[in-house]
Design brief:
Layout lengths: L1 H27 L11 H30 L2 H24 L5 H31 L1
Length: about 130
């Protein structure tokens, strides 16, 4: 499980740096707290951070449940795809929000794959347990 722990830490570090990006944009574009709107580029940084938070709510539990019951190695590998997807998403969204599709897909696919895997594992575990 050390790979899963590393991916978890990297996801949280990545989120921390997205927050720093919001702080820099807030300063650069004169958007005083607690405002969450103002300059368009600030808003893009803010949306990257908030969308990442929304994704982490699903990704982190899925990562750990998948790792615990199915495969820590596959969970970590899917986690790396998630991290790369978030990086691509952040860069493309700040540059041009219309170009975010690849980054979003690389973020959503690993989480969805793990969730489907967990549901299949759970159903099989129930059926095998019921048959025993």
């Amino acid at each position: 499980m050390p790979f899963v722990a590393i991916v978890t830490a990297l996801a949280l570090i990545q989120f921390f740096f997205f927050g720093l990006g919001v702080a820099r944009a807030r300063s650069r574009y004169g958007v005083a707290a607690p405002a969450t709107s103002g300059h368009e580029v600030f808003e893009r940084h803010f949306r990257v951070q908030m969308n990442t938070l929304e994704q982490l709510v699903m990704f982190l539990p899925a990562l750990w449940i998948f790792a615990l019951y199915i495969s820590p190695l596959w969970a970590a590998a899917l986690g790396v795809v998630f991290l790369l997807g978030r990086a691509i998403y952040a860069i493309s969204y700040v540059k041009d929000p219309k170009s975010r599709a690849l980054g979003f897909a690389l973020t959503a696919f690993p989480t969805l794959a793990m969730l489907i895997g967990i549901v299949i594992w759970g159903i099989r575990a129930i059926l095998v347990g019921a048959a025993a």
